[in-house]
Amino acid sequence: MTMNPFAALVENGPVLVDAEHKAWFSACLHNAAQTPRLDELMADQGDGFWYASDDWRAPYRPYVVKEGILHIPVKGILLNNFGWQMGNWATGYDYIWRAFERGLDDPEVKGIALMVHSPGGLVAGNQVLVDKMSERRGEKPLRGFAQESACSAAYNIIAVAPHVNVSPTGTVGSIGVYTMHLDWSAANDRFGVKVTYISAGEGKVDGNPDEPLSERALSRMQARVDDLYSIFVASVSRNRSELTEEAIRKDLGAFTYSAAEAVSNGLADSIGSHDDALSAFAGSLDDPSNQDEGEREMSTPDNSAVDQAAHEKAIADAATTAAAAMQARIGGILQHEEAKGREELANHFAFATDMSVEAAAAALATAPRKVEAPQAQQTQAEATNHLDAAMSNIDQPNIDAGGSGNDRQANPDDASADLALAKQFGLRGFVQA
């Protein structure tokens, strides 16, 4: 049994997570578990949801209003029955709803901003949250800001906003479902372990990790995946009304898309830096002509060719600046002293998050270093090659539902990468969607 409370929340339960961000998801589980006084937070069942600003628990339930805009962070892994927000690592559906509800009822709040950077989260609770938010989204101006990634469960949430802005280097989408079954039977055989399940009721132990997946278990898992996919597609189509369910299934699939692609295919409405997009939102709140949130703003304004050219140049300049900053940040993380012996985690922080060099170094310092065997001294180039090879074997699900966006096929004879990752974070047989 895992000792990580966040891993326990997702163990053996379905999740809506982009397959390419599996390492990021696991890092979120690990780092959220390092939260100070975590046991007290997890045990808190008090009736008073919002704490006084001087209470030590207040930062874990932030309620931040700037220029009349309530900022709701939707970051890290997204959890059901969880009323806390833990920086970049974990956010509870209960917290998101309570903040959204409070903002709608707060006379000081003119508009609400969903600040999203997440690979996704649990299936349980996600659709309930999205449905409740959808019912009330017309009460005040609402915008979604993909501060890099808004994938899978996170995209379902950000799609509630009538207008979605994506940062120049951001990605959105992953509207699809897949599940994964881990088969430990070969490893059990190698270690001389024999597991016998004693059960009552047909199908009770179907899909257990200690034996190969049966055709019956496979069929039932596929049916469940198909049902979840239909719900997900219908939800996005409802909230992004110009996207039909057929278009989502046939044209978009479950791929993730860059900012420019997302604006072109209807998953997003504009591209811009975080600060500029927020400033534009704040300005629109004082303009009565922009108060009709029933009409979606599109990224391409109906202006002259000169204005459009200036708009495109501004986007290109922003992208160039962002790319230079990103290159410097990536190099700083990968070459940092704390990255030695933690190359895989450093690679994740560099390429799959927007963490600063300082924040990544601090997080890396909490993780154990890999110890090289004396007989296996490696050059830096050899270590990089081994890291690339290991990363290329990650995220190989053995069940694909309705265009999951992962074109790679699992190698049934090589589950070492998944087994190692699962062992590192204490996960057993969890299911991803």
UniProtKB/TrEMBL annotation:
The keyword Hydrolase applies. InterPro entries: ClpP/crotonase-like_dom_sf, Peptidase_S49, Protein_C. The keyword Acyltransferase does not apply. Signal peptide: none annotated. It comes from the Bacteria. Residues 279-305, 394-417 are annotated as: Disordered. SUPFAM superfamilies: ClpP/crotonase (SSF52096). PANTHER family: PEPTIDASE S49 DOMAIN-CONTAINING PROTEIN (PTHR33209:SF1), PROTEASE 4 (PTHR33209). This is Signal peptide peptidase SppA.
